[in-house]
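Example 3.
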Amino acid sequence: MESLYQYAWLIPVLPLAGAMILGLGLISFNQATNTLRRPSATFIVSMLGGAMALSFAILWSQVQGHEPYLVTFEWAAAGNFHLNMGYTIDHLTSMMLVVVTTVAFLVMVYTDGYMAHDPGYVRFYAYLSLFSFSMLGLVMSPNLVQIYIFWELVGMCSYLLVGFWFDRKPAAAAAQKAFVTNRVGDFGLLLGILGLFWATNSFEFDIIGIRLQELIASGALSATLVSIFAILVFLGPVAKSAQFPLHVWLPDAMEGPTPISALIHAATMVAAGVFLIARMFPVFADIPTVMTVIAWTGALTALLGASIAMTQNDIKKGLAYSTISQLGYMVMAMGIGAYSAGLFHLMTHAYFKAMLFLGSGSVIHGMEDVVGHDPALAQDMRLMGGLRKYMPATAITFLIGCLAISGIPPFAGFWSKDEILGAAFEANPALWFIGWATAGITAFYMFRMYFSTFEGEFRGNQQELRTQIKQLSLPAFGPGAMDPHELEAHDSHEHGHHASEPHESPITMTLPLMVLAVPSLAIGLLGTPFANYFEGFVYAPGEPVPDIAEIAAEFEWSEFLPMAGSSIGIALIGITLASLMYISRKIDAGAIASQIRPLYEFSLNKWYLDDFYDRVFVRGCRRLARQVLEVDYNVVDGVVNFTGFVAVISGEGLKYFENGRAQFYALIVFFAVLGFVILSV
Amino acid sequence: MGLPKDGFVGLSSKIRSSLKPINRLNILTALASIIMLTQIPWLTVLIAFPLVAAIAIPFLPDQNGKTIRWYALSTALIELALMVYAFWGSYTFELADLQLAESYPWVPQLGLNWSLAVDGLSMPLILLTGFINALAIFAAWNVTKKTRLFYCLMLILLSAQIGVFAAQDMLLFFLMWEIELIPVYLLISIWGGPQRQYAATKFILYTAVGSIFILVAGLAMAFYGDTTTFDMAALAQKHYPLAFEMLSYTGLLIAFGVKLPIFPFHTWLPDAHGEASAPVSMVLAGVLLKMGGYGLIRMNIQMLPHAHIHLAPILAVLGVVNIVYGALNAFSQGNLKRCLACSSISHMGFVLIGIATLSNLGLNGAVLQMVSHGLIAASLFFLAGVTYDRTHTLTIDKMGGMAKLMPTVFALFTISGMASLALPGMSGFVGELTVFLGIANTAVYTSSFKVMVILLAAVGLILTPVYLLSMLRRVFYGKAGDVAASAWIDAQPREIFIAVCLLLPIIGIGLYPKMVMQTYDVTTMAIAQQLEQEVTVVAQQGNFSKALALQEFHAPDLHASGQKMLGVMNSNL
């Protein structure tokens, strides 16, 4: 068993090696590597398969009760400062390893179908593999600095993958936005790490926690200061897990290919923030201010995401806001101290949200046959409808995902969300209420999505609708806006090649969907309140090991039923509302929207946060930079040029002193030195 | 031959005895044994070799301009190999003292000695010099105008750079410093862009005026007190009054501040980079800027520690200004190379902050940042040159959508850009992290001062990706721009090779920084200890400036038991 742990470093290194080999191949022998499509993909997938097998073995060994394992080596040293790196394996890590490797594996299989016709097929696999390395390294990190390293690396992979289609302008902008927004969070994280290191002289989670408590208790450090440090660290997760107010990058990141939306922006990377909060739990748990901030940030984000998701027409944007909302639940769970519940939701969400995204990718793939490779059309739900007939496998799995996220028992989402809501009710009924209301909105928008995509009539062939949507999607300002004639010409050119009906995706795409449907259905059963195996395995550090039997004994139906009943109830209300509006059309959604115009606009424009940031930060930064440049040209450089001018004038005068005698110059230097010495003494 | 194992006397007598029967073989063996047993003046060899090679260039036969470039490249490569061999064989990493020392009187009337030595501070920089220069000469493969002069100047430049880092005599240092200016001036003014005259003149005016301050301060220090000496170690031993130290310090700060460059003496740099050709930019950003940082540590800290303790807060403030001001400047530049030049200004701010920490960690970070930035900046400027070779413009707005045409250049540029914005796993991150840790943990500043410095320097962390990624987006992403031509070829093997050569150490240091840190750690530690002693002395005398040492709330003491179980920080681990 021990050798398994000694070779655990292979888990991240296998995908890294794959990425390196492909990357070097692409840089050195570009064309040759690009022709080896299938071999490259097989190579990368099998590397990750190896990592997955190891991860399962480690999870099994941890479930059997193996001790946590830690390996470190000295990474940097300066005098008596030593910084170690290495890897650690405990229950949390082993769980995360399995989640990450399984989702990554399935996404890689799916990619083969989705990217089949893309010229960047091999490069995409290289990026995916690099991302897997970074994410696996992140979850195995034993200390804060190493987490920060991989934290930034996953951010870079996200940058590369969002900007994968580099000839698309919006993709480039989205990639940059994602990176910079995450840097803002990392700025806080780094400052927090520095502060905690200054205070405790350590980068290790439990040691920091213990020392901080000692320092606060002895009065050497004020609680306010500690709270500031902790909140700075929390800024990292705020950006990475797309929490308010740094969530703005995630919807834009949907410009990337759909497989990475599933892997990075739904299942794994965005969950890294929650993972970091879990790792920092020994520090955060004892600082009430921070826990309150975390809980309320999560709750607000959950509400914000859901409220915006209601009005989105782009299927991927809708899912993105839904992800933001669900991440809000997890963060809220962490904030109220429901450690296991938050991580349980992380796991269930990883599976069902990955499946939903892959499903949406399958839908887009099918739609592209009809409307062409135009994200504005292929992703718009107003053009879909009735797709269940054409793509049954996608429809059924998508429905399972919708039921899971809406919290209908026995699907996975119900158990994890209900556990969070139960804990929230005990902590603060206001938080519970927000979570509960959000659950209703979630059910509504998810089924709005399902109904308008898969039910009713197919609308993809309605020409006016297409033109209308296309024109709406164009920027309405600036010289860059497209000429309408050009648009029509473009459209008519495209039509010749396309089918009038979408089709089901190839088996490499539907198979991962079906595999993911299994955990989406059943994995929640690991964490039922009557037999919570999950909590028995993943529990907050420093707490006594929870006894499953004991918890089960404490379980009372009279407590469970009202809570569960109310959440199922609101979910059913949401679903009913959605069906009335989008299937039977008994309620006119447009009429409601026009009645509550301001609210509708508020949601449609994403709470106006993007506009606000653009005006204040983006343009403000540009203006400032321009002003600085002007100062540089006119003032700093101007002074020098002026001095140069003076020098020329005085040079004219000094010319008469130039007699070419070396002694004379020596004399001047001598007097300068002499004056210098006299002046200073 | 049974030569005595040690002792020069024994050896020379052996030579004399072997000379008696005049036998060529014997002389050769004797020479060989001298080479093996006595110290070769390695540093002199390293300085002289490129110089001699450069002098020979005018007399070389040259067929259609290809011999010269091979000649220059092999000279640079041999030089690099000699360096590695010399340091590998004769340099002891565990020693903080000056090593490979040699000293010969040169102009005894002036007291000028040809004295050279290296320690942990100069050794990595000399290696960096050899490495960057070799690659720069390789990058200048397609120079067609006045080839002989070009390579001649490049080799002289190489020689002078090593001289600056190795000189242990104040006058010799000044001499080398001046010699290095002339080739750069010529390289910009002959092979530069359209505005080259303006840029070259600005460069020479700035740096020449700056270097006068080195001379004046050096002479003042040399003539101060009873003994007149130019020896740097002896100058460091002298005790100067504080006012004198402050004045000399300011003079040197101006000289090195022009070179580094420090705000407000930086405006020559964007002009010089904007006009210089890529190989010259590589050397300029890769090595010449580091001379400023090197000078600050070697002279301002080591010779004038009292003044440094008093003026260090100013350095920290200037560092912050550099970081933020340089980054904002870079953001609004419309010229690719000017943008990169401003990015250099920004990154050099970290060196200043590291120097200002007065702590081992900070100094260590400053040196690491210098080495790392040397590699990263060289790589970025090289790739900018590769781009320019195809676009024939440096205006960012005219480019665009080039990723599709030149995917490999795009990939390499992205990696270098990532390194520059301090992505972990690459050297820039380690340098900046160490500087941050150094300033966070230094004991000499008040907490509020530290917080301000860290906060503003960290703002640079946000601004760097803003301008670098904007630049990448505008140059490479989107649809093809105005100047795009489908005839452009992607990077050629030579270009890929150079970029990969620069990127490998960047990633290597990023993955395992100890590899580089341990080569100079003892030296920076010794400097830091010296500084710490001075700080204690000054603090006891109680005449500290207000910004310093007034610790409102310093890092709380840890429990003794806690100290023992330090996890990450434990030196025993």
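The two ends of chain B are 49 Å apart (CA to CA). The first helix of chain B runs from residue 8 to 19.
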